[in-house]
TrEMBL record:
Keywords from the UniProt entry: Lipid biosynthesis, Lipid metabolism, Membrane, Phospholipid biosynthesis, Phospholipid metabolism, Transferase, Transmembrane, Transmembrane helix
Descriptive protein name: CDP-diacylglycerol--glycerol-3-phosphate 3-phosphatidyltransferase
Keyword Zinc found: no
Gene3D superfamilies xrefs: 1.20.120.1760
Region of interest (Disordered), ranges: 1-22
Localisation: Membrane
GO cellular component: membrane
PANTHER family: CDP-DIACYLGLYCEROL--GLYCEROL-3-PHOSPHATE 3-PHOSPHATIDYLTRANSFERASE 1, CHLOROPLASTIC, CDP-DIACYLGLYCEROL--GLYCEROL-3-PHOSPHATE 3-PHOSPHATIDYLTRANSFERASE-RELATED
The species this protein was found in: Actinokineospora terrae
Amino acid sequence: MADVREEGAGPVDGSGDPGHVGVPGEPVISDRVWTIPNILSMLRLAGVPLFLYLLLVPKADGWALAVLLFSGLSDWLDGKIARWLDQTSKLGALLDPAADRLYTIATVVAFVVRDIVPWWVAALLLARDVLVAGCILVLRRAGFGPPEVTYVGKAATFNLMYAFPLLLLAQGGSTFASVVRPVAYAFIIWGGVLFIWSGLLYLVQTRAALRLAPTAAV
């Protein structure tokens, strides 16, 4: 799931933080650790192994779904609270996307193990994350922040956030599962396509930023 609090790609400012560009009017990014958004992100991270255990060992899909829904709600809340209370922090900028990525990876891998989605779907989604991680690494080495979050990426996250819980609800042979199943497949198809598309857009943004590297270094 993509982090809406990421900074756009830009040269390193005087603070030495490659992910922050010193632009007037931006909220101050602090070094605080124990903020409400950070605590929510920590709880989300702690929920990843619990989610995997519930989904793979006792196959308690209802409880696994509850953990997944808490993850989605806390993901929305921590960004809102960070802005409302002016609690944007460097640690939060790391924890929030890390929790998103871990939940995405954990869910996709668990769904493959449970035969909920085919392996090639998981391979495509994970390959996109590897591509974006490579782009961020290359940009940081060139003195730039991460690529700017796109509306395509946000739309992909929105679709996947609905697709994963719906796919869990679609398991079984009940009438309810039969009704939910086509809706879940629609969300996972659209979310997957947009997810891969956003990865390609990150690649385009990275190439454009690298072309400006000599200018930014002056």
